Amino acid sequence: MNRVGLGYDVHQLKTGRPLILGGVEIPHDTGLDGHSDADVLMHAICDAVLGALGEGDIGSFFPPSDPQWKDAPSKIFLEEAARQITARNGRLINVDAMLIAEAPKIAPHVAAMKANIAAALGVSPNDIGIKATTNETMGFVGRGEGMAAHAVASVELPN
Ligand code: MG
Questions:
Q1: pTM, full prediction
Q2: Neighbours of ion ligand 1 (CB under 5 A)
């Protein structure tokens, strides 16, 4: 049985925060704000995987009210999503994600992001798609106030 899931996330950009995307710290004058490391890309992917399982979202596993997740590396969320697949004797087939960010340039970091995400999910980097686009200067993304990410995941589960 093949299942698909959808994930979406958005975080504000603030000065004084590191910019961490796909587990890669990228030099930039602002960084994503949030309770964890605010890795918007990993969060969207996590929700896509959990959605394919019919599970609740990332916040139901890691409540933002819980201080132990403050500044936590978001790979632990992906590792939990992978555990949820394993617990069902399932297999992650692929993930595809789209980051929407006005700056900085993402392409130089995509290979490292794929490696980090694949390692956390226990799959090959070839099973992870990462693309990025700007918002053509429009809206909150275009003004550099935040970043957004969309993701889909396909999971095979036993019948
Ligand atoms: Mg988030």
A1: 0.97
A2: 9, 43
